[in-house]
Every structure is written in C-alpha cells, then in structure tokens.
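Record 1 of the preview.
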Amino acid sequence: MRTDHRANLQLILTLQSPPPGVDFAVQRGRDELVRPFVATADSVSFAITLTLGPLLADGSPNFRGPFAQGTPADRFVYVNSGFYAGQMGTPWERRAKIKLADIPIALVERAAGNPNAAIEARIEGTMNDLAPVSRTPL
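->
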C-alpha cells in the first residue's frame, strides 16, 4: 500500500431500508453519538472521517481516529440504534459492528488523502426479524 499513513479517509455509511420509528447514530469514541447527515424512510447515511496510521505488520491499513473502535487488527465502526442511539421510549437497544477490514485495499488507496473522494458502504438497516441491524452485517 503506497498511501501516506497520515492520510484521512472519508467514509459514508448508508443503512438501507431501516425500520420505521427507530433512531440511528454512529458512535464516536466511547460515548459520543453522531447523527446521520441524511435520514429518509428509505435510508440513513452517516459521513465519518478515519485516519490511516502506519501499516499493520501484514501490510493492511491501520484505520484510526475517534470512529475506529476495537484493536488495530480488528477495527470496526459502531452503528447504534434505539436506546443506544439516544432514543427514549423505545424497545430497541442495539448496535452493529461495521468491519473496516472488509474495505478493499484498492479503494482505500484511491480515496485516502483525497478530500473529494469517499468510500460508501451500504448495509441493510433491518434484520430478518424486522428489528434494527444489530450484528456485523457482512
């Protein structure tokens, strides 16, 4: 990977077909919640910035920054729903791990450091039981 390891990487997370009446937020750090920049009946989208640290020993990207949760070898972004997204009076208390290792390295190399580029990940916002997504959706 030739990308400058100090580069920023713009990521757009879009939940498709979210359940109605459920709030969603991305977790920043331990307890800060970031609201979507677009929310419609059909989708909910978040824009976040990750920082690339020095490459990992296996040559894979080292995603860092306040949105990157987990260990360097197992980074993910939390998408919280219901109570965990700050919604009161809801029966839902869920969060999903969006694994960053699943982003192809070629996409990271093309988008890193380019303020006009972003990687978009689309996931289903509703589980088979019609509840908000609550596990690694990949």
